[in-house]
Request: fold
Amino acid sequence: MQLDYAQLAALAAILRTGSFEAAAGELGITQSAVSQRLKSLEDRAGTPLVRRGQPCHGTETGRRLAAHLDQVGMLETALARDVAALTPRSARLRIAVNADSLATWFLPALAQVPDLLFDLVVDDQDFSADWLRRGEVVAAVTAFEAPIAGCDSTPLGTLDYVASASPAFMARYFPDGVTAKAIAHAPMLVFDPKDRLQQIWMRENLGSAPTPPSHRLPSSQGFVDACLLGLGWGMNPLVSIKSHLEAGTLVPLLPDALYTTPLFWQATRLLRPALAPLTTAIRKTARAALR
Reply:
């Protein structure tokens, strides 16, 4: 079908803001006009594009169409850099990134490309590539090395994790050392249901992966703070807690038991020239922050 970009803009605004009213305000048109544009686009697509609710969510097709609009905007922005007569506009990029990268090294890279707007999707590094496979983002920081169809894969380095806790927590739960039996009763921090780092670390270093009582805490900084307060033990990026380890306010559960996660930047090959400034910034920042 031939796409109407005013209709696509209405769809993207609804998904971005979560409501028809907010989309109308962003686009500077009436709420009725937003509804009419979406209805026309849904009629042309032959399928619903938005799941109404508080907030509204896109269907799979709706998210794909909204991502296409972002890709077109990125190409137009790149063209405006080369053609002086064109008025540049800020393109919006949807990128999937893991929470620990976002909390440690990723934002300084984005700040080096000020003419772009970013819509960040936070997901585990083992799952962020799925957003690329579905065509819902243009790039992702992922642990998946093999290039996804239509994408370039660039190695960034490894993010090192330390299983760590406060000295008081260690004294309470591990007075005789960290063993599989002891850790089964020590409260553990879990980011979300996809977070398997703790289980992988236990299996690699203790020979088994019990299911300790756990706090669910979907915040990278919250992980660090909770460990400092003695709520539990967790897998913290070394770059986040290096000063605490040096000060002794956090200690590793086991010495020399780092868990390393390789990270890769996968980006849509079609947008390679347009994404080049961002890719350069990502590689430069990762090289300084990762091992």
